[in-house]
Amino acid sequence: MGRITTRVSVNHIRGAGRRRNLDNVVVEQPMELRLNGEPIAVTMRTPGADFELAQGFLLTEGVIGGRDDVRTVRYCGGASDGVNSYNVVDVALAQHVPVPDLSLDRNFYMSSSCGVCGKASMDAVRLRTRFPLVGDVLGISATTLAQLPDLLRSQQKCFDSTGGLHAAGLFDLDGAPLVVREDVGRHNAVDKVVGWALQRDRLPLSETVLLVSGRASFELVQKAVMSGIPMLAAVSAPSSLAIELAREAGLTLIGFLRGETMNVYAHGERVC
Which positions are catalytic residues (predicted)? Predict the structure, then answer.
């Protein structure tokens, strides 16, 4: 496995003073995802929890629906020299799982900056949703929600040394952290969280809250909906399409969760 952080030489300037320093920076490397041996996507990610990342991505894209849909997950050699760089992950589907269309019009695309691009639409999410949120009335107190950002931040160990990572955390309705994952891409961090749950056969995540350290985009709402998560909170703003999807899908969407303040953009009945 590759390192999560590395040390680089920098020129540190403060006022009129200059000195040579070593700085910790987060590692960013490409990971190729293969499905039954066929390349389907590449993401720039922080090494670590790669199997969670691969399976979480496939779950939130509707390719798989649970742990039993996966036969094996393994690292394999690169396309050119066959050397195992731990940057290529191959997921073999169980025999009962149909293989999706891997032609270019399927347009799988993973990126550390923008997630899945070029095919995201409301209709696509409607067709692929396996865990409907309608009828879920479980709630969480505003006081508990207000504590989550500090809990998430306290578990961002790599961020403490680099300042260059997004985080996603899954919490129960009492505010207890279940899992926290960091990555250069906020979408990757969420996929790692979902993959963690899939490996432990915990789907759907119907009694949980997902908190992300950045903004709430359409793609993050999509990933929450596809995982059966009824509530997504972000420390920054949501987009208009994220709000539209959350309202339609039955997801509680919270933005600007900072201290005791928050904006509830969709399905506020779960906040008590």
Answer: 114 (cysteine persulfide intermediate)
